[in-house]
Amino acid sequence: MSRFNEAGEQPAILVEGLTKSFGEVHALRGIDLSVPRGTVLGVLGPNGAGKTTAVRILTTLLLPDEGRALVEGYDVVRDAAAVRRSIGLAGQSAAIQEELTGQENLEIVGRLYHLRWPQARSRATELLEQFGLSDAADRAAKTYSGGMQRRLDLAASLVGRPKVLFLDEPTTGLDPRSRLGMWDIIRSLAADGTTLLLTTQYLDEADELANEIVVIDHGLVIAAGTAEELKGRVGGDVVEFTVPDRGRISDAVAAVARIGDGEPNADKETTMVSIRVGGRGSEALIEVVRALDAAGVETRGLALRRPSLDDVFLALTGHAAEDEGPGGRRRGRRSGRRGKDSEDMERTAS
Amino acid sequence: MTAVAERAGAPGVPAEPGPLVRFGWAVSDTLTITRRNLLVWMRVPAYLVFTVIQPVIFVLMFRYVFGGAIPINGPGGYVNFLIPGIVAQTAAFASFGTAIALATELKKGVIDRLRSMPMARSAVLAGRLVADTGRMTVTILIIIGVGYAVGFRFINGFGAAVAMILLAIVFGVAICCISAYTGLAIGDEESVQAFGLIWLFPLTFLSSAFVPIRTMPGWLQAFANNQPVTYVVDTMRALALGGPVAANLWKSIAWLAGIFIVFVPLAVRAYRRAS
User: Which residues of A touch B33 (CB under 8 A)?
Assistant: First the structure.
């Protein structure tokens, strides 16, 4: 197979038929990716979907079982050293030594990229400046807020001026404000022409930052396209509410059945009912309120929300929230409760 | 596809350097990691307490609490008997730090992150060992200083004294290699600590380090007389205080060589597999 795409250009990242298993756990079951230079790919999926495994293979930390992966034209297995000279990896603050200051942390990374001391120093100062950390440069990193630590970690990944940057869940666990700050930084990196591969559990994050999105579930790419294309498949906004009286769920579903696009989805366990309403957001919300009121069904937490990862899954896999997937495993549970277990599995797996 | 085309695919990425440059980088990377580890060590008060205060307490406790109950016929009495033993014990216990640090870095993903950089892969392990050797040397010198304050004297000349310290350091590095392997293989801070207690305590205390072996019950003597810590401590004692060195020294060297031959490859393999 060629390392070039149809246009004759070499993509920054090219992945073909990549598989990886950890014993019984099939983390990747054959994925293909192609990321053109200077673009941002969002890899979207729940915990345990295989995102981290893919990033670990692409950053030479893990050997694939089958398939191949090229970064900047270099094979991640055969030319691992050249790949490492071309990439940066950031995400879970792992590059940060908390006892050391921001300046020291970046200087050490600079030295490991074989910069001379004066260059390592000035590069550290420059990056701290760029990431708004100058005032904290001489403070131990453990005194930094979560958002500051992520920024320092990201700065560390940029010391070697990578052509391709891997961001593994860069905003997971951050408060909304830090998250927006991180998005600004990521956007400016993309604007500078760095190729970015970004994994995330949040649809809005991929929507904001990525040119292209692939959705991964159980180690397979289940959809690829722009944010707009994916949202088109999801079908727009969702109205949802819970029914405290379990016995009246069917009445509630009957009352709102004709308002949404397709059948309302009712979860018997959580008594959560959700209705896809396309672009008719607030209009549909009023209709739902009226219908429920007329039927005399008491509800809680009635709300209109933007499509979430769950909705993407629901739309893409065709399974209702609590259905069994083809592999017998449960799919598409709500992301909030989704998976301590699947997260642990990925951790053990990797 | 030819090598030229491969390179042409990624303009701006520096070509693979020659072996001499790479060796220079491996040395510089090891020193960078060493520096980082020593900086961390100096910033955490708990680490300083563990490496400095705890051995001093051991010296004072054995000298003044237990020492009176342990009659020694040799020159200088118990304090001269004790200091070589406690130096060896401290060198061995320094390896706790090695195991815990590697396990923590592995768990936190630090090792992964370092491995995604174009640095020498050997530097993480090597830098850890160099830093810990430095740390251990400081502790050993402190103990000897405290020992001098409470009556210990080298009575076999300066060269032999230096030889004793060197042997202690080599012994400590050997134990650090075992600990590096356990730290990477277990990969969990608390478990590593617990496991360290299980093998390090018996190994150091069931030896000639603190009491003459003849005071132990017969079945214990069989173990204590034939384990590496005893050979090393007896050699160190002979170097510090005079007496026959050769027999115990050869046995020490054989044991230490054996430890390096087995555990260096195991630690390197655990490091590779861990990542």
Answer: 112
